[in-house]
Amino acid sequence: MESELPRATACSLCGEPYTLPEDDVDGNLPRMLLCGHIYCCPCLRPLEQDNVITCPECQVESQLPEAGVDGLSEDCRIIGLLYTAKMNKRPHRSSRPRIREPLPQIGPRFRKEASNHCADLQKFEQKVDEALMRAAENLVQLENIQETLKTGMSTQVEKEKSRLQSEIIQATSKAIHCIQKWKDSRLEELSTLESYFIQTKSLMEQVEERVSSLQLAMQKAKEVRRVKFLEKYCPLEKVLETLQAPVENQFDLICISEVTELRCALNSHTVDESLTIVLDFSNKNDIKQSESAQCSGTSQPKALCSSRSPSPPGSSSPNLSCRGSTSDLAPDIIIEEVVEDQQVSLPPTGPQLANEKTRSRRRKTLTTRYTRTVTPWVVVTHVVNPNHFYVQYVAEKKEGELLSKKITMFCSKPISLLCARHTLDTGSLIFVKYEDGLWHRARVVAVSQAGCTGTVKCCPVPQIASVQVFFIDTGLTTAITIKSEDRDSETLLTAVNNYLRRVVDLAKAELDSFAPQAIRCGLKDLIPYDLTKGWTKEAQVEFRSIVNATTVKMQTLGQDKDSLLVDLKKVPANRASGPHISVREHLVFIEVARFYAPMIVSKKPLLYYPPVSPRTHAELNAVVSYIHTPGDFYIQLVDNMESLLLSDKLQKFYNAPPECEEENLFIYCPVMGDACVALFEDQMWYRAQITGQPGGRRVEVVYVDLGRKKILPVTDLRKIKDEFFTLPAMALHCCLSDVVPLDGKNWSEACSSRFISLANQKLVTILATAKGPRHGPVPVKLFESSLNGPLDNIGQKLVEEELACSRDGSSLLDCEDCTMWDPPLESDEANAAGDNNDGPSEFQPKLQLPALLKEVKVRVSHVNSPSSFYVQLIKYDPWLQRVYELLKQACAHREPELVLWQEDMYCAAHINGVWERAQLCADVLSDDIAEVIRCDHGNKVKLHMSGLLPLPPELVGSLALECTLCNIRPAGGRSTWTATACDFISLHLSGASAILAAKEVSEERPLAVTLSCSNTMGQFVCIADSLVSHGLALRERRPVSDVAGPKTESPEDADVPESRTRDGPDCEKQSSASTTFNNPTNSAPRPKPPPRCFGTTEMIQTPLYRAPELPCPGHLLMTVSAIGEDGTIYARTTNAERQLEQLKKTIQQSMKCNPCQKKYTWKSVQGCVIYGPDMLWYRGQRLEVLGGHLKVQYIDYGHVESIPVVHVHPRLLSEDVPQLCVPCQLQGIVPVGGRWQRDAVALLTELLLNRCVDVNIMELPVGPREPLTVEVFVNGLSLSTIMSENKHGTLEQMFPSPLRTSELSTPAILDDWDIDIEGLLEEEQLLGSFIYPELPPEGEDFPVRVKHLWTPNELFLWPLEGASNGPEINGESLDDALNRINAAIDLVPPLSSFPRGGPCLAEYSDGKYYRAMIMDIISLDPVLVLLQHVDYGSDDTLTTAKLRQMPRELLLFPTLALKVKVAGFKAPSENRQEHMLPYSPAWSVQAALDMIDLLHGHVTASVVAREPELTVRLYHEDGQPVHTPLVSSGLAELD
Question: What is the pTM of this model?
Answer without folding.
Answer: 0.30
